[in-house]
Amino acid sequence: MPAHDLLAERPLLLTIMAQLHAFTGQLPEDRTQLYTEAVQFLNNDWNKAGVFIDYIRERAGLLIRHKTEAYTFPHRTFQEFLAACHLASLPDYASEAARLVRAEPDRWREVFLLAAGYSARINLLGQALNAVNALCPFEPDAPRSAAPADWPAAPLAGMALLEIGLVGVQREPVGQAVQQRVQRWLQIGMRHDALTPRERAEAGAVLARLGDPRDEVLFSAAMEFCYVPAGPFWMGSQDDPDAQNIEQPQEKLEIFYGYWIGRYPVTNAQFGEFAAAGGYREARYWGEARAAGYWNSDGYKGWRDYERRQTPSNFGEPRNLPNHPVVEVSWYEGLAYTRWLQEWLTGQIPAGWRVRLPNEPEWEKAARGGVEMPAQKLLRLVTEGLTDERAPTMHPNLQERQRYPWGNEPDANRANYDESGIGATSAVGCFAGGASVYGVEELSGNVWEWTRSLYGEYPYPMSGAERDKRENLAAGSSDLRIIRGGAYYVNRTHVRCARRYRYYPDYWDNNWRFSGGGVPMMTLASDSPCAGWLPLESPGKPRSPSTAPAPYPAGLRKVG
Question: Are 291 and 298 in contact (CB under 8 A)?
Fold first, then answer.
């Protein structure tokens, strides 16, 4: 959002901006420059501003007069800017600014940022970079152990670089070095328990603006997947006071095949590749949406759309940041992405495998874990090759019926839901502590995830015509699809492994994703209640000759 859009929300600044625009005919986009011109306006043309001064003093109470021609601003923003100008003029500005903000971050945060921006605007770029360097002076993996104040300093250092302007930062060798160091701090910090959930989310958002170096988060062809071995697991709820009727009864089911599922939800950057490649105009990806009347060669138009579009709807930051899960996507859009990705990964996945949205059993097993769990998590990048794995060494899962991917108790430090206090989507990877036993992250919270399953009561059909009906992709648009996982705005009961929700396939929301990165569960992610994960699946491979199942999809049976 442009600087003046945010500043205009404050009455004093809006009035000053109106005066500036009247005298200059335009407003600067940069907030530091806006403050500078506002102060110069009041200082250099005091007579013309007299009426204005009287107004804001007498009518708005926004100036306090202490003596003739001496005023102070009770409005803290201008106080902070003037303090920043003074700080930037000190001989030891860089070290003093870092010292002050480390000692009292709440008091000096905005002053530090504005001082960095102001220094850069008055041709003291080197001074501004030195201040950032003083705040974040060593590598996060340096022999010296990081102090508690070092971790929250990294997001602030990143915001200061943005305040300076990345064009100027990248023009100087020292700026390039500082930026890369801060990026490394943020990449580690967003997964570190030294930061609160809100601080980790801030670190992820700053990293997105500086440039997230994680290829597996930005590029579809570099996605990272987790292996879920074949075997039994518990599906549904039992003896859970938060359980809904549609989660019951709980049964032990067995999935005969192993599959890969995305470590993270699909991100805006990854889904953006599909859109940029013309995916919204390719008929071969949209068969079901075309049959339902939601797609033609001009693009997609669902229930909440006013016109046809070729990209997801854009609700601004932070939801549209490249490393955040993609949201505002319907089930049809998630399905189309999986088909595009299937083509995109040709040659990188075994022949006969398919990229698709997960069904409910696949999603819930990936979240809760099986009756047994692998001795070691198997995570692999697409570029490293996804193969039909041999059964890994397994151990008994002592929490085989756990309510959350991490255990039986809710924990706002492990998932982005209402108690985390973030109030928006967060960059993928901010909740490492919420990973399932297979290494899959953010199955709980952040954004809802689409599955390919239609709504139906339990028990889940295991094979035959009923199973085919439950997972019929060609079902009508009035047939509800299941979404899983909860989102940033829901309470703890909605982020349980067994929680189910249902919605129409043409509906999208700015809180849904699908697994894989903002779309249905491939492990795409959407920021709304209809998103899900998207697993890579091997044709149903039997665990042993004596239990050989029919070819997929009859790869599921009740145990006991």
Answer: no
* CB 511 within 8 Å of CB 486: no
Q: Where are the alpha helices (DSSP H) in 137-255?
A: 150-164, 166-171, 173-189, 197-210, 215-218
A 10 A CB-CB count for 103 gives 10
Residues with Cβ within 8 Å of 536's Cβ and at least 6 positions away in sequence, in order, are: 225, 259, 260, 261, 349, 353, 354, 355, 386, 522
Instruction: Give the largest CA-CA distance in the chain.
Output: 96
Q: Quick check: 481 pLDDT over 50?
A: yes
Superfamily per CATH, domain 232-269+312-537: paralog of FGE (formylglycine-generating enzyme) (3.90.1580.10)
The mean per-residue pLDDT over the stretch 114-123 comes to: 92
Using DSSP, state whether 261 is helix, strand or coil. strand
Q: Mean pLDDT, to the nearest integer, of 275-284?
A: 97
* Contact indicator for 35, 6 with CB cutoff of 8 Å: no
How many angstroms separate the Cα of 406 from the Cα of each of 247, 438, 450? 19, 11, 21
Strand ranges for 305-455 from DSSP E: 354-355, 372-374, 379-381, 394-396, 448-454
Question: Quick one: angle between helices 93-103 and 105-121, nearest 10?
Answer: 150
| CA pair distance 403, 414, nearest whole angstrom | 13
Phi–psi pair at 316, nearest 5 degrees:
80, 180
What DSSP string describes 51-76?
Answer: HHHHHHHHTS---EEEETTEEE-SSH
Query: At a CB cut-off of 8 Å and minimum separation 6, what does 206 contact?
Result: 155, 158, 159, 162, 186
Q: Please state which of the ranges 31-40, 253-262, 283-292, 506-515 shows the lowest mean pLDDT.
A: 506-515
pLDDT for residue 27:
60
Locus of tokens 């973030």: 422
* CA–CA separation, 421 and 449 (whole Å): 21
**Helix (H) or strand (E) run with residue 226 in it:** strand 224-228
Tens of pLDDT, residue by residue over 19-63, are 655 566 666 666 676 667 666 666 665 555 555 555 444 444 444
Q: What is the pTM of this model?
A: 0.84
Backbone angles phi, psi at 525, to 5 degrees: -125, 140
Domain ranges of the chain: 3-74, 78-189, 232-269+312-537
- What token pair was written down for 39? 């102060």
pLDDT band at 365 (very low <50, low <70, confident <90, very high): very high
